[in-house]
Write a structure and sequence with these properties.
By secondary structure, the protein is α+β, with helices and mostly antiparallel strands. The protein has five helices and three strands. It has a three-stranded antiparallel beta sheet with strand order 1-3-2. β2 and β3 form a beta hairpin. The protein starts with 7 loop residues before the first helix and ends with a helix.
Length: 108
Amino acid sequence: MLHKDMSEKLLFSAYKLFFSTLTSYSRLKIINLLRKGSRNVSEIQHKLKLEQTVVSHDLRRLRSCGFVSVEKKGKYRYYSLNEKTIKPLMLIIDKHMDKFCKMIVQKK
């Protein structure tokens, strides 16, 4: 939906930011892990075998774009997927991929 109060340039910059957030292999891995439940940085790091700095950098990007939220519990910060927008969006993407994309990837 085009927002009438938003210039086309600003709109497409926002699209680019949103979709480029999904083009990172490590961010996609984090998103898929968080679909299973909240995790702290070290849990994400160990589970995905990623450097701590990569995880922290990716979480900062995911958080700033609203993909994840953070909750402090004791001395740890737990990250979880945005339940209202990103989690339902990922289900829609899964359905689309099942119908169109997985067949293409399997042929390669």
